[in-house]
Amino acid sequence: MKKKTKYLTIAALLGSAGLFTGSYLSFRASTLNLKKLVRKQRDIDFPATDPWVLEKRWYQNTKRLHRQIQTADGLTLRAILLPQAQATTKVAILAHGYHHSLEQMAPYAKLFYDLGFNVLVPDARGHGDSGGRTIGFGWLDRRDYVQWAQLMTQEYGPTATLVLFGISMGAATVLAASGEADLPQTVKAVIEDSGFSSVAKEVYYRMWSHYYLPAPSLMPLMTLFAKWQAGYAYQEGNILRQLLKSQTPALFIHGGHDRYVPPKAFSRLYHAAPMRKMAYFVPQADHVQAYATNRAKYEATIRHFLAQLKLV
Among the residues of the chain, which ranges form H helices? Predict the structure, then answer.
């Protein structure tokens, strides 16, 4: 009996150690951008067969200015500003996705530039040339985008017209920022493409559906690690709750075959949104593929949304 108890105790200790280790490694993989040290996440190189090759070449060769902010938690975040040749006070502020960098936004930068906007494209915290290694999943980044909007308002004046646009994690970022009380009144519209409604739900979904990890077992400890090392618990990142505090007109875009953010997140966000809103749902599109699926329709939808608000 004593031997059996001993084995059970050892098994329990090994199981606990495995759970602890698995939770910490899962936290590190999901929330710490360790690739940043070797800059693997930069989207600089692309083949001549890339469907966005013209936009990316334009992006690399267009005149750019550099901007930066200091965050409340001591990070230096960097961005590029693509100014119009003819002076305008319209600015589109773009937000890239998880484990990417500002180069990812080339097609969208060209889209908004052609609509007559100056275009500001930041590297998110923990990505690209910005400081930090902790990924904010849109939650920490929401405060950064309030600062970017404040900076653009200072630069272009109190009568400036700002539009926030984001894809995937960047979509969650701009939605969350729209619910902040100190977001400048110059922000007239928000456009999100493939955003999620909750950091906790998104982390859980990715672990369970993509990496086949036991999310129910790992998530409690992962949340503690996130609170300890990243400064926020996943459950705090309630994008939907932020959206409910917003009155900024919003356009919601999503693909019906999205394998990274389930379409029900789009439905949850859109139907709960209290502001003036518009939806563009592309049944055959995968994650952040609505633009590639039908470029003309995507561009026309954004133009129509902004025209309804008299922003173009």
Answer: 2-31, 53-61, 106-114, 141-156, 169-178, 199-209, 215-225, 239-243, 263-272, 290-293, 295-308
